[in-house]
Amino acid sequence: MDGNDGSALELENIQSGLLSARPSPYAATYILLHIEDPAAGRALMRRLSEVVASAAHLTSPAGDTWVSVALTYSGLEALGVPEASLASFAWEFRQGMAARAEALGDTGPSNPEHWEKPLGSRKVHVILVALAPETEQLERALERARRAYQDLPGIRALWRQDCHSLATGREAFGFKDGISFPGIEGSSVPGSNPHERPLKAGEFVLGYPDETGGLPPAPVPEALGRNGTYVAFRKLHQDVAKFRQYLKANARAAGEEEWLAAKMMGRWRSGAPLARCPFHDDPELGADPRRNNDFLFQEDDAIGYKTPPGSHIRRANPRDASVAGVVSLHRMLRRGTSYGPPLPEGVLEDDGVERGLMFAFVGAHLGRQFEFVQSEWMNEGAFFGGGHTKDPLAGAHDGRGEFSIPHRPIRRRLTGLQRFVTTRGGEYAFMPGLQALRWLGDLRT
C-alpha cells in the first residue's frame, strides 16, 4: 500500500521491533548501556546495524524474534551528534522523561527521586530490547546483541530487566493484555478493531504523512530522522495485593469483586469487553481476536451503562467519542511485557516481590500521543465530563480518588482510590532506522 504522498514504507530501513507485535507467549530482556568513548559508541552503532532486523523480515520464520535499539538524548550527545541535529529532535525528548515527571503524573512514590538507578539519569545512553516466543530463541538473540558490545572497552552495561509472559497469559492484576492496537497504513500490520481504519504511517514512523496530512517534524539530516520514531519506556510496579484489598473492601455481595474489576478496566479479566457482554464474563469471547476488540462506545453506550466513561480502556482509547477530539491524533503502538512472578491467587498481603509491566509506547509525536494521553486522559477526566478524576487502575491516586459507575436506578460511586501502579523508572528514546544507525556509526568529529 502507498501513503497519500505516493511513497511506500521503506520496510528494509525500519527496525522490525517498531512494527512487530508481541508474540504470545513471549520472553524479553531490556539492557541499558553507557557510552564512555564516542568512537566505541559509533562502532557499536555499526555493529548493531547488522544485528537489528528490518521490518521487511516480519514475514520470515524469525519475524517474531527481534532485537531493537534506541538512544536517549544524552546517548546521541555521547556519540557526538552535531548540535544542529540534536536541536532538531522533539523538545520533550531533549528534556527527558524524568524532567517531565509532573506532567506525566510521576509524583509522590512515582517521583524520579525514587526511581531505580540508573533510570532517568544521563548515564543511560542506549536501550537494547530483545524479544522472542521462548527463552532459547531469546538467548540466541541476546547473544548476537552481546557480541556487539561486550568487547568494546568504551561501552558499559548498566542495567538489565528480564520479562516474560505469566503462566496465566495475563498481566499481574489478572487481565488479558495486548488486545487493542491500531493498524498502520502501508504496512502488514492490521488493526485489532474492524471499526478503526488503518492510521497514516506518519503517526508511527517519521518521514511519512500523518493524520494531519503533513509530515511530522523529524530530526535532520533526513538520513538520521527518516524511518525512525520515538519510544517512551516505562517500568511500572503493580501493587496486586492493594488492588485485591480494594476490591474486597468495596464489594457489596459475593462475586461482586470481579464485576468491580471489570468496570474499572472496561473488560472482564478474560479480555471479554463489557461493551459486548456487560452482565457476565465470556472467556470464549475474550480469547477470540476477531471479536474481543470489535466494538465502539458511542453508538449504543454514550452514558456508559456498559463501559463506564472513566474506565481504563475508555480513557486509553475513547474510540468514537467525539468529546475526546480527533482520537486518531493520540493513538500509539503499545508494547507491554510482564516482569516478576504472579502473586498467588487469593493472597491479600503484599509479599515484597517486584512485579509489573515494562511498557514501550511508540509514536512519532511524543507530545500529542504519549504525553497527551498520560496527562489529559489517564490523569484527568474533563474530556468526558469527569472533572479531575483519574484512571481507576493506572492513575496517580493519593487515596482520595473517585470512580463513577453509571448504573440503574442509582449510579455506583467508588471512593478512596489508591495508587495501584507506581512508576519505577522510564526513558524517552529515539529508535533510528537502519540507515540512521549506519549514519551514526559513520559520524566524524
Automatic annotation (TrEMBL):
Entry GO MF terms: heme binding; metal ion binding; peroxidase activity
Record GO cellular component, one term: cytosol
Ranges of residues in domain DyP dimeric alpha+beta barrel: 28-146
Entries under InterPro entries matching the protein: Dimeric_a/b-barrel (IPR011008), DyP_N (IPR049509), Dyp_peroxidase (IPR006314)
Pfam families: DyP_N (PF21105)
Co-factor(s): heme b
Protein keywords: Iron, Metal-binding, Oxidoreductase, Peroxidase
Name of this protein: Dyp-type peroxidase
